[in-house]
Design a protein that fits this description.
Helices cover about 65% and strands about 0% of the residues. With about 160 residues, it is mostly helical.
Amino acid sequence: MPVMEAMHQRLSINDVDPDAYKAVLGLEKYVHAGGLDDRLLALVKSRASQINHCAWCLDMHLAEARTAGIEQRKLDVLAAWREAGDMFSPQERAALAFAEQVTLISVDGVSDAVWSDVREAFDEKQTVTLLMAIAAINVWNRMNVTVRTSLPSTPGGW
């Protein structure tokens, strides 16, 4: 199996058109004003970024998760949250399942079971905010993966 070459950034979206970032930042402002816990948002953003293989977003959101007080062990098992017993709360489990199905929407859509768990764990407004958070991180992931956004030289250098 050939060794992959180092990835190099193809384009800087922000340098070419800062308004492109501003458009997505508007969505982020909406999400962060929506009242969901920062720890929950960090878990959801990190899980979607794992699925989408977005190193830049993982670097950012795992750092945010640690700053928000999420234990490293919980972050270490995030990709296998279903097998982590009660390490994740019922609300976190519902949000993570929702994030996975929305991120992989073309596979099977969002199942009635996942929807039911989300609606049991979140009120209508929170559900909309959670959906928008998942939509936003998927936009960021697609932008960064497509142009191969380079990691900052130091953690937190975004």
